[in-house]
């Protein structure tokens, strides 16, 4: 089972107000997180076809999903070439799918659809509507950003101060990987990409 390094503030944000506003339904107390029998086919159905040569957030989501399947040489560049194609074709062969390297509905359902909704949100998570600019100090806003960002490989958030320095650099790095202008400003495109990548890679947890 995947484990996440989550500091107390992030846990409070996610398991408190954020869980309500994003529509995540926690597993029952008798069910361990990530072990419920439901699938995430709704999320898988919403994911677009990805082809060799593509770049951006959908490729990043694909790469980190495959990484969690054991293809640990994929670090998530956002560029579909080389090792990513090798991993996709191997995954397709293992799951009885034509190893074309084209990631369509069958591949997404085999990769993401099988995951329990407690890890993916199953397409029911709504990203925040507010923006964050460098220099932001609002702890509620920053808590939601930190909570999402550190669920993306390889980021680890250790500084809970204002949004500056290393944190801005992490966001800029994510933006480049996701094919977004690396301004460091967290707007709708960045929020949507963050939530897509975390959801598709099964990174939410309970």
Can you describe what's shown?
With 206 residues, the protein is mostly helical. It is built from 9 helices and no strands. Helix 1 (8-22) crosses helix 7 and helix 3 packs parallel to helix 9 (188-200). The longest helix is centred in the N-terminal third of the chain and has 15 residues, at 8-22.
Topology:
Blueprint: H1 8-22, H2 41-46, H3 57-67, H4 83-94, H5 105-113, H6 117-120, H7 139-149, H8 165-177, H9 188-200
Helix pairs in contact: 1-7, 3-9
* Rg result: 17 Å
What order do the SSEs take from the amino end to the carboxyl end, as H and E?
Answer: HHHHHHHHH
Q: Stretches where pLDDT falls below 50 for ≥5 residues?
A: 1-31
Helix coverage percent: 40-55%
Q: How many beta strands in the DSSP annotation?
A: 0
Q: What separation lies between the terminal Cα atoms?
A: 12 Å
Percentage of β-strand residues: under 5%
- Largest beta-sheet characterization: none
The structure class reads mainly alpha
Global outline:
globular
Q: How many alpha or pi helices?
A: 9
State mean pLDDT (0 to 100 scale): 86
């Amino acid at each position: 089972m995947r484990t996440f390094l989550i500091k107390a503030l992030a846990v409070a944000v996610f398991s408190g107000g954020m869980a309500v506003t994003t529509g995540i339904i926690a597993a029952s107390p008798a069910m361990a997180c990530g072990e419920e029998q439901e699938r995430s086919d709704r999320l898988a159905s919403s994911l677009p076809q990805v082809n060799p040569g593509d770049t951006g957030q959908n490729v990043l989501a694909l790469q980190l999903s495959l990484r969690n399947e054991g293809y640990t040489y994929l670090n998530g560049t956002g560029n579909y070439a080389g090792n990513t194609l090798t991993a996709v074709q191997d995954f397709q062969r293992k799951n009885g799918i034509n190893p074309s390297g084209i990631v369509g509905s069958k591949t997404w359902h085999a990769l993401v659809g099988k995951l329990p909704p407690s890890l993916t949100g199953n397409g029911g998570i709504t990203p925040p509507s507010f923006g964050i600019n460098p220099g932001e100090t609002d702890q509620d806003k920053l808590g939601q950003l930190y909570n999402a960002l550190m669920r993306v490989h390889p980021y680890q958030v250790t500084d809970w101060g204002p949004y500056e320095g290393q944190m801005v650099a992490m966001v800029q790095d994510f933006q480049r990987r996701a094919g977004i202008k690396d301004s460091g400003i967290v707007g709708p495109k960045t929020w949507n990409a963050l939530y897509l990548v975390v959801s598709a890679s099964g990174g939410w947890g309970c």
